[in-house]
């Protein structure tokens, strides 16, 4: 057995059935070279978890909190071939609804919109100093 010191997991969830979900949160437009390292990280997490408990069911995911291409599907060329897109990638609505249940993503967007409207004068005032 080789000892490794994996990076910290961004989000670790355990289902009611005891399944583990190890989630790595990434920016919306990661670099092409990054996906090889992302996959390595997921594999190290799974290996370390299974070494400690070989009977646990482990799921690893890359999560991208928002889709900069919306309303079009997320289609970053850098992910092709590196990830099992159906099982290892959750983007925007799929990610937030996975965490909070159906409708969580829309609730989150609604919160941002309400706060944005409420704080608009304060936000505009802050950014005024950068217009010089």
Helices and strands, with pairings:
Blueprint: E1 11-14, E2 20-25, H1 34-52, E3 58-64, H2 85-88, E4 89-91, H3 93-100, H4 104-128
Parallel strand pairs: 2-3, 3-4
Antiparallel strand pairs: 1-2
Helix pairs in contact: 3-4
Describe the structure.
- The protein has helices at 34-52, 85-88, 93-100, 104-128; strands at 11-14, 20-25, 58-64, 89-91.
- The chain is of the alpha/beta class and 132 residues long.
- It has 2 domains: 11-101, type ii restriction endonuclease, domain 2 (3-Layer(aba) Sandwich); 102-132.
- Helix 3 (93-100) crosses helix 4.
- The longest helix is centred in the last third of the chain and has 25 residues, at 104-128.
- It starts with 10 loop residues before the first strand and ends with a helix.
- The model has no long low-confidence stretch (mean pLDDT 90).
- Supply the CATH superfamily name of the largest domain: type ii restriction endonuclease, domain 2
Q: Strands of the largest sheet, in order across it?
A: 1-2-3-4
End-to-end CA span: 60 Å
Provide a count of the helices.
Answer: 4
Q: Which descriptors apply to this entry?
A:
type ii restriction endonuclease, domain 2, elongated, 42% helix, alpha/beta, 132 residues, 2 domains, 4 helices, 4-stranded mixed β-sheet
Brief sketch in words of this structure:
This protein has 132 residues and is of the alpha/beta class. Helix content is 42%, strand content 15%.
